[in-house]
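Ex. 9. Protein: Thioredoxin.
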Amino acid sequence: MTTTAWHADPLTWGKGARIFEAFLEPTCPYSVRAFNKLDELLNQAGEDKITVKIRLQSQPWHMYSGVLVRCIIAASTLEGGKQTARKVMAAIAAHREEFEFERHAGGPNMDVTPNQIIERLEGYSGVRLKEAFAIPDLDREIKWHCKYARQNGIHVSPTFMIDGLVQPDMSSGDEVRVWVKKALGN
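Predicted C-alpha cells for Thioredoxin:
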C-alpha cells in the first residue's frame, strides 16, 4: 500500500502579534456573517498587527457540517492551500441554504447524498474536492480542530478568541471597527 504525503495548510492570514481566532461552522448563518468580515478585519487592523486564524467548529445540528468541514480541510491540501480552502468556504457561504436543512431536520437536502453535496460544492467553488476528500487520514486534521475547540471550551459558532482568551462579548453582528478595537485596543 502506497501512502501519499499531504499537508493541510493552516487557515491563517496576517502576520501580526495579536492572534484573532474565529471558530466557525460553515453553514451557520452567524458564522457566515463573521467569515464575510474577516478580510475587512485584516484591512482595518493591518496584516502586520493581527493574525487571523479560522478554526472549523463542526456542529451536528447542521446536518452536513462534518462533510463540509472535511471539504474545506481537503481543499487546504490542494494547490493554493489556504486560499483554495477559503474559496471553498466562500462558496458555502454564498450558497449556505443549499448545504443546510430546513429547521435543521427537513427539506430537499434530506434526499441528498454526501457525494452530491461534494459535487454541488465543486460546481460552486470550481475546486475538485473528491480525491482530496478521500485522503484516508485526513480526519487527523479534522480531529485537531475539534480537540482544539473542546480544550478551549468552545461550544457555539461563531466564537472568537484573542490571544488565547475567549471573548464572550464579541458577536458576528458587531461592526468590524469594534473587533479591531477589541483586538488591538485602539
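Check your answer against this statement. The domain at 12-184 is CATH 3.40.30.10 (Glutaredoxin).
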